[in-house]
Design brief:
The complex is a heterotrimer of chains A (95), B (259) and C (310). Chain A is of the alpha+beta class and 95 residues long. Chain A has a three-stranded antiparallel β-sheet, with no helix packed on it. Chain A has a two-stranded antiparallel sheet with strand order 3-4. Chain A is 15% helix and 31% strand. In chain A, β1 and β2 form a beta hairpin. The mean pLDDT of chain A is 95. In chain B, the strands form two sheets. A five-stranded mixed β-sheet of chain B has the order 3-2-1-4-5. Chain B has two domains: 110 residues, ATPase, nucleotide binding domain (Nucleotidyltransferase, domain 5, 2-Layer Sandwich); 144 residues, ATPase, nucleotide binding domain (Nucleotidyltransferase, domain 5), CATH 3.30.420. In chain B, α6 crosses α7. Chain C has 310 residues and is of the alpha/beta class. Chain C has two domains: 131 residues, Nucleotidyltransferase, domain 5 (2-Layer Sandwich), CATH 3.30.420.40; 137 residues, 2-Layer Sandwich (Nucleotidyltransferase, domain 5), CATH 3.30.420.40. Chain C is built from nine helices and ten strands. In chain C, the strands form two sheets. A six-stranded mixed β-sheet of chain C has the order 1-4-3-2-5-6. A four-stranded mixed β-sheet of chain C has the order 9-8-7-10, with helices on both faces. In chain C, a hairpin with a 4-residue loop joins β7 and β8. In chain C, α2 packs across α9, α4 crosses α6 and α6 packs across α7. Chain C starts with 12 loop residues before the first strand and ends in an 11-residue tail after the last helix. The C terminus of chain C is likely disordered. Classes of the chains: A alpha+beta (95), B alpha/beta (259), C alpha/beta (310). At the B-C interface, α5 of B face α3 and α5 of C. β1 of chain A pairs parallel with β9 of chain C, so a sheet runs across the interface.
């Protein structure tokens, strides 16, 4: 399942996509995120799936653009820690 | 040389009159239904404050989203350039500038001569601009001017989860019904917009002195919340909402129309 | 605000299936969708629709859940104690007092849309009171992909409410009113509801009729919704659930922009269709929850199958 967390508002589209078919629930991305946005837990959108997967914390989804700003400076931008930590390319930022 | 700068913003039109690098008169008028009419009114007010008439002014430049509505301007300058020029003049050490107006917010970095290096904006979303605070003030049955005082009396930091002016209004109303103390709600509201503004600062990077301009910089509560969010001092020049107009007046004196 | 007329809330409703006697039933399950604006309760017997009730959410999620249950159970003699398994969904899903499990509205709307519209549905659009979601599903109603916005009021029921309030038009009439124009005017420029409202105020002052302003806003809302749908890709059959399905003004403009028709708002189940059971798109979430409740009840052995109920 492709889980798109985030929103679209007047300023643009801001989504983090987790592919739960690829995600192993290892939690590397969650540990790497300096803003503590990610958490590993039960697949809340597939109640019959027992495998843990990564998701953006519910209470942080609405502020995703603001929370991720520190990792997206205009200059000297490095690869995103969450995307780099994931060995399966299960997590991507759409902006 | 006497010049004038007209900053035609989303909510107000502001005019400054400058003589040899000094502001000698200024005035504002609500944009209302006609920015053109408001520009005339603000110009008359500024002239009156300066004790001058139209023929004393050599050149007039307009800036802001409604600059084309100013029919008596001789030239134009882009809003960003006007603000950069204005703040550099008023605060030569300012390098990171937070500009929060009624309908948009931006953060930009400038060099020592007022040239813009980087820019990040929050636009087309009321949550990142002055109208957000106005909506929250209404929901709290208070005024934007009273927010600083309420912020100072807050004893507890609460989080407003909504990042939308419409949803935040409902959230604030619920908090009021739940008998949350108003000072704490105000602090939550100011922290929320400070957080959104701080995210722009993080994109642009802080270097040197941080300045805050635009109408929202008049809100001392917001400035305190922003300082708390950034963990650094934010300086507000006198008349922060006139910085754009000052930049336009200075550009008029230079004679260079940069659009 | 006390005393202010509420133009913008869908009316409360309820319905009961006259053909089922719950005392003879097998697995009795309940799904409660606690939304920000309305709360729906669906009661199923052996996965068949028994009754439903829809109430205004008001200020307390747990109170609304109970109220919705009592609306659905009215005149039936059913109490929460008779229910084998209850699943809560929606914004207030953890606040259902007699809920056995909470499941997200994404999963529940997917399952509910599959149940109401049939196994050919692949793309579901739902607009709730404070959110807008697009869900891609398989033939069993399992989620393949989803996108949900609940940050920005644009494209949500609340966004529509702001306009209904501005123009003093009850929400049930918004859709039809927006279609009373010769041709569609340009959409409102701003996505943001706050700025769109200012724009609309200026248009009204410039002499635009209410119909024209509403058309411009529904057009803008449709454009936004379409761009969300296109982000995860639309695939037929395309079905709409939630309150927005009742707003022909938005649905028509969405399907026109997508170039693809939406499923007719009627039961896939021929039995229900032929008996004329009401097809209320707002119960999709609660229905999906009630179906999950059945699966979980059977999985956990929590049924009274075969036992007479006193």
């Amino acid at each position: 399942m492709k889980a798109n967390y985030g929103y679209k508002d007047g300023s643009g589209d801001f989504f983090i996509t987790v592919d739960t078919d690829l995600c192993s629930g290892c939690g590397a991305c969650a540990s790497a995120c300096p803003a503590g946005l990610l958490v590993v837990g039960e697949d809340e959108n597939d109640p019959l799936n027992d495998n843990p997967v990564c998701a953006v914390r519910n209470e942080r989804r609405r502020g995703i653009r603001y929370a991720c700003a520190a990792c997206k400076p205009l200059r000297n931008r490095l690869a995103l820690p969450c995307e780099t930590a994931c060995k399966r390319d299960a997590i991507t930022h759409e902006w | 040389m006497i010049t004038a700068g007209v900053d035609s913003g989303a909510q107000n039109v502001r005019v400054v009159i400058m003589k040899d690098g000094e502001v000698i008169g200024r005035a504002l008028a609500p944009a209302g239904l006609s920015a053109r009419v408001a520009a005339e009114e603000a110009y008359r007010g500024a002239l009156s404050a300066a004790g001058l008439t139209r023929k004393d002014v050599r050149k007039i430049f307009a800036t802001g989203s409604g600059k084309r509505d100013c029919e008596f301007a001789d030239g134009e300058i882009a809003g960003l350039q006007a603000c950069a020029k204005g703040i550099n003049f008023v605060m030569p050490d300012a390098r990171t500038v937070v500009d929060l107006g009624a309908e948009a917010g931006s953060v930009f970095r400038i060099n020592g001569s007022g040239g813009v290096i980087d820019l990040a904006v929050n636009e087309k979303c009321a949550a990142g601009a002055g109208v957000f605070l106005e909506a929250m003030a209404r929901a709290l049955e208070t005024e934007v001017e009273k927010m600083a005082g309420l912020y100072d009396r807050s004893k507890k930091r609460i989080t407003i989860y909504a990042h939308c002016a419409v949803f935040a209004e409902s959230e604030v109303v619920s908090l009021v019904h739940a008998k949350t103390p108003k000072p704490d709600i105000v602090r939550g509201v100011l922290s929320a917009i400070a957080l959104r503004t701080a995210s722009l600062v993080k994109r642009v990077g802080t270097e040197g002195q941080v300045a805050a301009i635009g109408g929202v910089a008049l809100n001392k509560g917001f400035v305190k919340a922003l300082e708390e969010e950034l963990g650094m001092r934010v300086t507000v020049p006198e008349g922060p909402d006139y910085i754009g107009a000052i930049g336009a007046a200075l550009a008029a004196a230079d004679g260079k129309a940069e659009v | 605000m006390p005393g202010k007329p509420e133009f913008w809330r869908w009316p409360e409703s309820r319905w009961r299936n006259p053909e089922i006697d719950w005392t003879k039933g097998g697995v009795i399950t309940c799904g409660i969708d606690v939304g920000s604006i309305s709360t729906e309760c669906v009661i199923m017997i052996d996965g068949e629709l028994y009754s439903y009730g829809s109430v205004r959410t008001g200020s307390g999620s747990s109170d609304s859940a109970v109220k919705a249950f009592h609306k659905a159970a009215l005149h039936t003699g059913l109490t929460p104690e008779n229910i084998d398994f209850t699943v809560g969904t929606g914004y207030g899903r953890v606040n259902v007092p007699f809920g056995n499990r909470a499941i997200t509205e994404i999963a529940c709307h997917a399952r509910g849309a599959n149940w109401m519209y049939g196994p050919r549905v692949r793309t579901v659009l739902d607009m709730g009171g404070q959110d807008c979601k697009v869900i891609k599903i398989d033939e069993k109603g399992k989620v393949i992909a989803f996108l949900m916005n609940d940050k920005c009021a644009a494209g949500t029921g609340r966004g529509m409410e702001v306009f209904a309030d501005l123009l003093l038009i009850p929400v049930q009439e918004v859709g039809e009113t927006s279609l009373k124009v010769e041709e569609d005017p340009p959409p409102v420029n701003s996505t943001c509801v706050v700025f769109a409202k200012s724009e609309a105020t200026k248009l009204l002052r410039a002499g635009w009729t209410k119909e024209k302003v509403l058309a411009a806003y529904c057009s803008s809302m449709a454009q936004r919704v379409v761009s969300l749908i296109e982000r995860i890709g639309v695939e037929e059959d395309f079905a709409v659930t939630g309150g927005i399905a009742k707003n022909r003004g938005v649905v028509k403009r969405v399907t026109k922009k997508l170039g693809i028709e939406a499923c007719d708002t009627k039961w896939h189940d021929e039995k229900y269709a032929s008996k004329g059971f009401p097809f209320d798109t707002q119960i999709a979430g609660a229905a999906g929850a009630a179906l999950f409740a059945k699966t979980l009840a059977e999985k956990e052995g929590r049924t009274n199958e075969g036992k007479l109920r006193i």
